[in-house]
Design goal:
Helix content: 25-40%
Mean pLDDT: 92
Shape: globular
Structural class: alpha/beta
Strand order of the largest sheet: 3-4-7-8-11-12-14-16
Distance between the termini: 14 Å
Oligomer: single chain
Low-confidence stretches: 12-18
Radius of gyration: 22 Å
Largest sheet: 8 strands, parallel, barrel
Number of strands: 22
Length: 418
């Protein structure tokens, strides 16, 4: 049985004077071999991109999809069918134009035949499984059925894992969907009284319009609404996967300051997974998988000096292991081009594709290498030093992978592995 040791060094492994600190007496960690969680499913690690960003990443030529993007998606799902979510805020800003139907005031982006062809080619090249957002905020049967029908016919049912109705409906009653041309004020898509009960009714109504199509939901991350996740799952009998969103930290106002220490704190990785764990148990009781199909470290675009640094690589590596231990079926890391917390930044210059690859992506790749599809997390004995995380997996072929992560902002630790 082979063993592969992977080291994720800390943000600063040297002392303040630049010298390597003297090693302390080693702490012993034992790898027992006993498994502690279900097998890692194929496609566990995936990306989440906005509908309006698809052609930024993949291009506008269906017969020449961006090869750099294809290669990078294969890196986080090696020898697997990657799960790509194409949804997010732009789910409810998009539509497939419907003849004789007026454009809804909140719609800013048209799904076109070229868009559909690019999505088909991308999925076919990767043999990918797509989670596709369908507009719910427009509250139109014609728009939802036309959009889903176009995706089925033009992308292909075999590549569609599920349709996700709407995005973060807990915000429909409080966030502006469009700006009034008369008052110039933001107008929400639903009244301020819009509740989880209203959403459950909307979802049931729209799911009846999309008969026979696989559905994902509720696509929400608000803690208050997620307290009622059991009511949603009990009411909706056509779900194929439960989807939730998870961000440990928020930077949505100028007064909010988020630090590297907060992102590396155990509350942002273990604590985040513990928040998700009850939802996994609830979904499993209904024999449904739960996927965290939108996740990143800091919401609202991230924080400069944290989201765009090596801190994010250490955070995502540890958090993916924590999520796997809870039994989630997979995680999609959300990336929006030209934001501070973008994971991949596409560029096309003079006909040549290039990609800005940020540190967080390398944490995703490291997890994919350490926890291949079909592997199991393995129990450890002993106690890790403060700020150091150790993870171990056993692959289907019996090989062991051990990952040691130093999440300290400074200082080294010595760990002896048995």
């Amino acid at each position: 049985m082979g063993v592969v040791l992977l080291l994720a060094l800390g943000v600063a492994a040297c002392g303040a004077d630049g010298a390597t600190p003297k090693p302390r007496r080693p702490l012993t960690i034992g790898v027992t071999g006993a498994t502690v969680a279900p097998a890692i499913p194929a496609g566990f690690v995936g990306l989440s991109i906005e509908e309006k960003a698809l052609e930024r990443f993949a291009g506008t030529a269906p017969k020449a999809v961006d090869p750099v993007f294809l290669h990078l998606l294969q890196d986080i799902a090696p020898q697997q069918s990657p799960v790509l979510r194409i949804a997010g805020d732009s789910t409810d800003w998009s539509w497939w134009p419907v003849p004789h139907e007026a454009r809804p005031p909140g719609v800013k982006f048209d799904l076109t035949p070229t868009w559909m062809s690019v999505a088909h080619s991308l999925a076919a090249d990767l043999q990918a499984r797509l989670i596709l957002g369908v507009n719910l905020e427009a509250d139109s049967r014609a728009i939802a059925t036309a959009e889903a029908g176009a995706m089925l016919g033009r992308i292909g049912r075999s590549y569609i894992d599920a349709f996700e109705l709407g995005n973060e409906p807990e915000l429909y009653g409080s966030f502006g969907w469009y700006r009034s041309p008369v008052t110039h004020q933001l107008v929400p898509g639903r009244p301020p009284t819009y509740s989880i009960a209203n959403f459950i009714g909307d979802f049931a109504r729209f799911s009846s319009y999309l008969r026979g199509d696989p559905l994902a939901g509720p696509s929400m991350g608000g803690p208050k609404w997620l307290e009622s996740l059991g009511s949603f799952v009990a009411a909706e009998h056509r779900l194929s996967v439960v989807t939730v969103h998870a961000y440990p930290l928020k930077h949505c106002t100028k007064s909010t300051v988020v630090t590297s220490a907060e992102l590396l704190a155990d509350s942002s990785s273990h604590g985040l997974a513990q928040r998700v764990a009850p939802w996994v148990a609830l979904s499993n009781r209904k024999h449904l998988p739960l996927r965290v199909d939108e996740m990143n470290g800091i919401s609202c675009g991230g924080t400069r000096g944290v989201s765009d640094t090596f801190t994010s690589a250490l955070w995502v590596l540890d958090t993916l292991f924590e999520m796997a231990r809870t039994g989630v079926s997979g995680v999609n890391i959300h990336t929006v081009p030209n934001t501070i917390n973008e994971v991949l930044g596409p560029e096309l210059s003079r006909g040549r594709w290039a990609m800005r690859v940020h540190p967080e992506f390398y944490g995703m790749v490291m997890f994919a290498q350490a926890a291949p599809a079909g592997s199991h997390l393995v129990r450890l004995s002993g106690t890790s030093p403060s700020g150091v995380k150790v993870w171990a997996t056993r692959s289907a072929d019996g090989s062991m992978h051990v990952v040691v992560i130093n999440k300290r902002l400074s200082g080294a630790a010595t760990v002896q592995l048995n």
